[in-house]
Design a protein that fits this description.
Blueprint lengths: L3 H5 L7 H29 L33 E2 L8 E4 L2 E4 L13 H7 L8 E2 L4 E2 L3 E8 L3 H17 L3 E10 L6 H15 L4 E5 L3 E3 L14 E2 L3 E2 L15 E4 L1 H6 L13 H11 L5 E2 L6 E4 L14 H5 L2 H4 L11 E7 L4 E6 L7
Parallel strand pairs: 1-5, 6-7, 6-8, 7-16, 10-13, 11-14
Antiparallel strand pairs: 2-3, 4-7, 8-12, 9-14, 10-12, 15-16
The chain binds uridine-diphosphate-N-acetylgalactosamine (UD2) and manganese (II) ion.
Length: 361
């Protein structure tokens, strides 16, 4: 009896036809499964256009960094590609997207190691792609006091992350000295004012020191129309948004958007409330908040306890309900501070300010 195989494979009908048919069938099945899983995820996340990411498969944040080499004369540079080729890697002649990153806080890297691993970062924590003209110029502003280990983690992860996005960027750390209660929002106002003296930045990233982005397709660029809340999915909140108007963690505004809301409030001393004030002033200034899709806006926060000198601001609820009255007079147009130091360190520009030594008001 002739088997199905021998019926299909004969001298006149070579077996390769059968193999071809089987391959075609496998391909159709593959496409069918993909479309099923895509429609399933779109049911789960109706507004989420961040793509589908598998966070169980992560890659080193330094992937492809060795591909960066010294550049030619800057005059001759052409525009960078629309999508950075450094966000992909090649394995067995196929190209894959990097996406989710391996983040671990077990070891705290020393500064000299971070410098060694980022040889193209220039004094002041500045970087410009050596081989092409960047599409965007982004300033990262980090409010800081007494969090050196967190700062080292941030620098270790953020420098390669930004270089692989082919951005022109600089990292500014705005350091509050003196023993007055911490004031995150006012420090960020200082950072914006000082950073804009250096460069006509396209985008300002207001960035907590303890938040590390987990997906390198979370591009550090602004939305042209609206302020963007970037850390939309943090491990601290089980990768969900804690509430609808939330604006804490990492956000991105163009200088124009920042000035339209009169910057951030200067009057929130201690923990909390300033993020809700900012969120409200965006709406009072006639804009709305847009967000990085949850599937892309993954962040890991380094676990920490409450800092001494940043106790809960007991007045925050009373202050937040008055934003419609306060936002025009409290912000960039009312800020005063004494600038103590401006240093171009190898991995960042340090700006030290003194808000005084008096107790919190
Ligand atoms: C949340 C928000 C944060 C802010 C804060 C309330 C998240 C992830 N972040 O942070 O954006 O709205 O609540 O004020 O939900 N810092 C220092 N030294 C200090 C104190 C604070 O450097 O002594 C800086 C540092 O950059 C830190 C940031 O201020 O990341 C926010 O302070 P936090 O981390 O103590 O507060 P957290 O995590 O509740
Ligand atoms: Mn924190």
């Amino acid at each position: 009896m002739r088997t199905a195989m021998t019926r299909l494979c004969s001298p006149s009908r070579p077996c390769s036809l059968l193999v071809l048919a089987l391959l075609q069938l496998a391909f159709v099945l593959f496409l069918y499964r993909r479309s099923l899983s895509n429609s399933f995820t779109s049911l789960l996340y109706e507004d989420d256009h961040g793509g589908h990411w598998d966070y169980t498969k992560t890659h080193d944040v330094y992937t492809n960094l060795s591909l960066i080499t010294p550049g030619p004369d800057r005059e001759t540079l052409v525009q960078c590609p629309a999508q950075s080729p450094l966000l992909e890697y090649t394995f067995l002649l196929s190209t894959f997207t990097v996406g989710p990153l391996t983040i671990s806080f077990q070891k705290i890297p020393i500064m000299s190691k971070i410098e060694r691993k980022n040889p193209y970062v220039k004094s002041g924590g500045r970087y410009t792609p050596p081989h092409c003209k960047a599409w965007y110029k982004t300033a990262i502003l980090v409010p800081h006091r007494n969090r050196e280990p967190h700062l080292r983690q941030l620098l270790y992860y953020l420098h390669p992350f930004l270089q692989r996005q082919q951005l022109q960027y600089a990292i500014y750390v705005i350091h509050q000295t003196g023993n007055r209660t911490f004031n995150r929002a006012k420090l960020l106002n200082v950072g914006v004012r000082e950073a804009l003296k250096d460069e006509d930045w396209d985008c300002l990233f207001l960035h907590d020191v303890d938040l590390i982005p987990e997906n390198d397709h979370n591009l550090y660029v602004c939305n042209k129309r609206y302020p963007k809340h970037v850390s939309s999915a943090m491990n601290k909140f089980k990768y969900r948004l804690p509430y609808r108007m939330y604006f804490g963690g990492v956000s991105a505004l163009t200088p124009d958007q920042y000035m339209r809301i009169n910057g951030f409030p200067n009057t929130y001393w201690g923990w909390g409330g300033e993020d809700d004030d900012i969120s409200a002033r965006i709406y009072f200034a006639g804009m709305k908040i847009i967000r990085t899709p949850l599937s892309l806006g993954h962040y890991k926060m380094i676990t920490h306890s409450m800092d001494v000198g940043n106790e809960k601001n007991e007045k925050r609820f009373d202050m937040v309900v008055k934003v419609s009255k306060s936002w025009r007079s409290d912000g960039m147009n009312s800020i005063n501070y004494s600038l103590l130091k401006r240093e171009e360190l190898p991995l960042y520009t340090n700006i030290t300010v003194d808000f005084g030594n008096s107790p919190s008001v």
